[in-house]
Task: inverse folding
């Protein structure tokens, strides 16, 4: 049976291949080489990621078994889980920029000279071995492992798709979401933009 990770991975691969084909047709040599390097890194991340999702599920399940509270799954709990998972992602990303140890794993993502969907694949696979630990405490307050894994997967898909120059400003959405426009600022190398828009 197909799950969100499989479907998401297929969608990301397809849109990246379309962008790769567009670069090839426009004869963008340097961009094409960069994209191919990003895709190679991405393949390692995808393979490692499937293994680490299984490990995360085991760890989350063990922690959830000793949870302080276990509210009945409801729409309210899903909303709370969404915002808590988003907060954890923000803290994780902030620490990835502010601490040398975590920056060592995150810097690969910011090292591309070009900005396109393939940059979403440009991730050091090492961070997959510790990343899930940041979300583990949510299990202690009754957020189920399945909720965390699903929300984290949906967030990962969204965070991949915002790595594009093809989508310009999105009006009101730029004020409340991490959009492609906001994330381009985050990846900019201008001194005034470094470590900005971490959301």
Result:
């Amino acid at each position: 049976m197909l799950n969100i990770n499989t479907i998401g991975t297929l969608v990301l691969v397809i849109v990246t291949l379309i962008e790769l084909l567009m670069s090839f047709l426009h004869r963008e040599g340097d961009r094409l080489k960069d994209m191919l390097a990003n895709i190679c890194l991405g393949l390692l991340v995808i393979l490692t990621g499937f293994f680490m999702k299984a490990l995360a599920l085991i760890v989350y399940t063990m922690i959830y078994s000793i949870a302080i509270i276990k509210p009945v799954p409801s729409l309210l709990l899903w909303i709370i889980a969404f915002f808590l998972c988003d907060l954890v992602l923000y803290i994780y990303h902030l620490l990835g920029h502010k601490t040398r140890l975590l920056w060592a794993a995150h810097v690969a993502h910011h090292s591309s000279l070009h900005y396109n969907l393939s940059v979403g694949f440009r991730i050091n696979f090492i961070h997959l071995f510790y990343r899930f630990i940041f979300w583990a405490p949510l299990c202690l307050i009754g957020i189920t492992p399945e909720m965390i894994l699903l929300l984290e997967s949906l967030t990962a898909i969204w965070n991949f798709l915002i790595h594009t120059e093809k989508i310009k400003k999105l009006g009101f959405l730029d004020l409340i979401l991490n959009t492609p426009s906001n994330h381009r600022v985050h990846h900019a190398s201008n001194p005034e933009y470094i470590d900005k828009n971490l959301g």
In short: The CA atoms of residues 170 and 179 lie 7 Å apart.
